[in-house]
Amino acid sequence: MHPFDAVRARSVVKTFGDVIALDGVDLDVAAGQIHGLVGPNGAGKTTLLGLVLGLAAADAGTLEILGMPMGRALSVADGVAGFVDGPGLYPTLTARQNLMTLLALRGERTSRSREVDELLGRVGLAEVSGDAVRGFSLGMRQRLGLAAALLGGPRLLVLDEPANGLDPAGRRQVHDVLTDLADSGATVVLSSHRMDDLASLCDEVTLLSAGRVVFSGPVHKLAAESGELDYRLITSDPEGARGVADGTPSLRRVTARNGSRQGDEQALVVRGPEAALDRLVAQLIGAGIAIRELGPVVPPLEAAFLALTGTEADINAEETTR
Ligand SMILES: Nc1ncnc2c1ncn2[C@@H]1O[C@H](COP(=O)(O)OP(=O)(O)O)[C@@H](O)[C@H]1O
Ligand SMILES: [Mg+2]
Fold this sequence. Notes:
This protein is 34% helix and 26% strand. The protein has helices at 45-52, 95-105, 113-122, 138-151, 168-183, 195-199, 219-223, 238-246, 274-286, 300-309, 313-321, and strands at residues 5-16, 19-30, 34-38, 60-65, 68-69, 80-83, 156-159, 187-192, 204-209, 212-218, 229-235, 252-253, 268-272, 291-296.
């Protein structure tokens, strides 16, 4: 359908003094795709998006944006919009005035005021369109930044951690806007330090860890990278279930580290391949033990993220950031 890559990076290196922020990164984003960059803090996501936006130049490697090679000169390529590290907004102006000012700067003043109102509605800011941006929450700023980026009708939209500060309703709104944009043929590249932000939205993800790509491809393939998972079972007979689990080949009982919750003294947590879990379930049923709950302790995508990036922190950080 789309003959070219909207983003094509090869062996991109970017250093800041002694810090190697990007260490030979390849990235392919097909036109019309929503592509997620995932990785823990410091992985290099913002640096890479900054290169795509032309805010900095790579030290080595090549980068093509919308089919054009990025040179040494710092400039946003034609058809590209977005921001890293939060959008640049005028705090004393209202949301609507911010967008109108952007249009005015491009010499388009009044002719598009209907479009501005429509955009503000789409990102869920209609009711606060007359309020000064100074009083906006992080999530409201993110949404206004998105509207500002959409004003120019970008063919490639670049967003750094757009889900930061958004409540679930805001998140859904942003998802819808980005999905509509991609449906119209534009390409979206966005980042997050959380896998679950991106899983439902992205066609493909690239997982960065310490400046290197540790995975790139469709989300369902990433889930398959998680290897052995921990599964948590609640049964009608905890003691009997433990006995059955101990007799199941390739399966071992473990003590859950993450995801402890109420009733866990009754829970059985086992680790092993899916096939071994299937055998356990069959044997439990055969033994007349009812299974009341069964699921992975950590969702497969999150488990793959943790395994490939070698981090544990994000899962535990989850409660505090929401
Ligand atoms: N302007 C800068 N000066 C010095 N170091 C930087 C700068 N920008 C990023 N870094 C370093 O580069 C690495 C990658 O950072 P960044 O791209 O911001 O990661 P992420 O967005 O994934 O959290 C980090 O070690 C960070 O400290
Ligand atoms: Mg960042």
